[in-house]
């Protein structure tokens, strides 16, 4: 009788750890996707607007664009 209980205890732990991991993964995915688009504007759009207004030069635009594209 005790042998069967000994197998279920680790299984319960694995199931709980899996559920908690899935919840954390889902929350992280939602947070990540929300940070890319704010009010329908992406980071690339904001960067292009700053470049068009002359707030940043060509070198800074290229560098920041490569960072944004690398992180997506």
| Helix-strand topology string | HEEHH
How far is it from the N-terminal to the C-terminal residue, by CA?
A: 53 Å
Largest sheet: 2 strands, antiparallel
Let me know the average pLDDT: 81
Helix fraction, binned, reads: over 70%
Classification by helices and strands: mainly alpha
- Uncertain ranges: none
Query: How many strand elements?
Result: 2
Biggest sheet: strand arrangement: 1-2
Protein topology:
Elements: H1 2-36, E1 37-38, E2 41-42, H2 43-53, H3 58-71
Antiparallel strand pairs: 1-2
Helix pairs in contact: 2-3
Short description:
83% of the residues lie in helices and 6% in strands. The protein has 72 residues and is mostly helical.
Task: Report on this structure.
Helix content is 83%, strand content 6%. With 72 residues, the chain is mainly α. The protein has a domain of 33 residues. A two-stranded antiparallel ribbon has the order 1-2. A hairpin with a 2-residue loop joins strand 1 and strand 2. Helix 2 runs antiparallel to helix 3. The longest helix has 35 residues.
Features:
3 helices; mainly alpha; single chain; 72 residues
